Structures are given as C-alpha cells and as structure tokens.
C-alpha cells in the first residue's frame, strides 16, 4: 500500500499560506530532503486552495533547469480534491470530485510510490480523521510572519501523533516527522 505523506512549511507563529518566506531557508540541505521526498513520490494530492497557489507558481517555471523542480511538479500525476474545479489547466491533473475518503483509499491501494501532499487544511483534516495520512512532516521555519495572513482555523477534529524523526538544518529549519498514534 502506498504511503500518504503530508509535507507542510510552517512559521513559528503557525502561518502556512504563501510560503515565500521559505526562500531564504531553502538551501542545499533543504533541497536534498525535498528532492528525496519527490523522488519517493509518484503522485501529489492537494486541495483546491493549494492547487490555486501551486499551479501558477510551478507551471511558469523553466523545466529544463533541474534546480527548479519544475519538471517534477509539472509532470507528476496530480490529484485535486475539489467540488468546484472542473477543468484543471495544470498538466497531468485529475479532479477528485466524489467522496474524498473513498477516492484516496483507492489511490493508496494502487501500486506505486508515495503520495505527497503539501499544505494543511480541510482536506488533510478529513484524511487524518479517516486514518489515511501516514506521516506529517512539519518544516518549521525560524520566522514570524504575523498579521492577517495567519492560517485559518482547521475543522474541529482531534488527532494524536508519535514523533518518528527530526532533522535540524544549519539554517535553523527543523523538520519534525510524525506518524498517527496507533
């Protein structure tokens, strides 16, 4: 069975939106770990808000430059959980418009590599509640963004996790990897 791995960039004050604040911290160490995640994943899952942010950012990047990651993000099979997106423009994108839990259960049952999910919101909350998320990797960045951009509250749910790994980069970024407590 494939693993579903959520990988989310977050600030010290809990902001996940518009992660341009990660750029000063995306060094060789971060690139190596991000590359190992994408090397292991042959599919990407996202909600509509993440799709709306990632599509314009990645589809406009030069795929011939291997340092940008654009070749991966533009070619990987992408699944978007949405009730409103009907005709995605991003290459190799399929909309999961039916029951989310059933659709992701079927995706995980297929042969293949990991399924990577970026961002954290209602889709992730529903999948955690259903027991479908295998790992949550929080990339904690040593920055406070503040202001009105602080992440919206998640749906009302509770989940408990075990810490399974930590990595501390020289940039100050900490990657804390958690698995659902069984």
UniProtKB/TrEMBL annotation:
Write down the Pfam families for this protein, in alphabetical order: RibD_C
- The Bacterial bifunctional deaminase-reductase C-terminal domain sits at 3-174
The protein's name: Dihydrofolate reductase family protein
- From which source organism is this entry? Cryptosporangium japonicum
């Amino acid at each position: 069975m494939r693993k579903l791995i959520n990988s989310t960039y977050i600030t010290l004050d809990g902001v996940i939106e518009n992660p341009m604040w990660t750029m000063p911290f995306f060094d060789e160490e971060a690139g190596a770990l991000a590359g190992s995640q994408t090397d292991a994943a042959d599919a990407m899952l996202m909600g509509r808000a993440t799709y709306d942010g990632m599509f314009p950012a990645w589809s406009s990047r030069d795929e011939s430059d291997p340092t940008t990651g654009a070749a991966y993000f533009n070619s990987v099979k992408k699944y978007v959980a949405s009730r409103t997106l009907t005709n995605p423009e991003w290459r190799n994108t399929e909309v999961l418009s039916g029951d989310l839990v059933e659709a992701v259960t079927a995706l995980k049952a297929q042969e293949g590599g990991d399924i990577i999910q970026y961002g954290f919101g209602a889709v992730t909350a529903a999948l955690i509640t259903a027991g479908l998320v295998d790992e949550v990797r929080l990339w904690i960045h040593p920055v406070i963004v503040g202001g009105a951009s602080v992440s919206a509250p998640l749906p009302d749910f509770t989940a408990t996790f075990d810490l399974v790994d930590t990595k501390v980069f020289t940039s100050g970024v900490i990657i804390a990897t958690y698995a659902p407590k069984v």
